[in-house]
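Project standup — Tuesday

K.O.: blocked on the structure for the chain from last sprint. Re-posting the sequence here as requested.
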Amino acid sequence: MNRRFFLSAGIAAAATAAATAASANPFANVVMFDPDTREPLISRPHAAVAQANAIPREIVAYHGGEVPGTVVVDTNARRLYLVMPGGQAMRYGVGVGRPGFEWGGSQTITRKAEWPDWRPPVQMLQRRPDLPRYMAGGPDNPLGARAMYLGSSLYRIHGSNEPHTIGQAVSSGCFRMTNEDVVDLYDRVRVGTRVVVLR
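H.V.: unblocked you, prediction finished:
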């Protein structure tokens, strides 16, 4: 009985701490989507781990100054927000740049592509000469199901065939999403959308 009591008390304390942390955040949870919708579009060896550790896509309260339609990437929190009307935002989990590849500022979505081809930039090929010079779009392509290109930079918001990397700092500066989430975001934004990256 004592063990159950302490376990219950520990869970309650953790829930209280989480609620306190959420209230200090300008983004507060409002609605969580059904976990079944987190099923990756592409099945990979790490799919079971990714699903177990999935970052739920959810609508949260937004108290920032950006107008509806703006995409805000919080690099430190590894979250991407699409600002919506009525003081809300859609929140997604993202993978971000690894140490040395972080960046911040404002860009604009200048192009959108479905199942994009991948041509590693020269800078990446210099670091990784083993990479292919070209890979056709498809399930094995590292850009995943959709890509949104940011200005004239080398960076994109894109899907991933490695969903287990979402929520981690592993990229060369791009923002990775699960294929399901990137399709959802892709359908909600247009060319010309402002993207604000916070560090």
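K.O.: great, moving the ticket to review. The helical segments are 2-24, 47-52, 122-127, 179-188. The longest helix spans residues 2-24.
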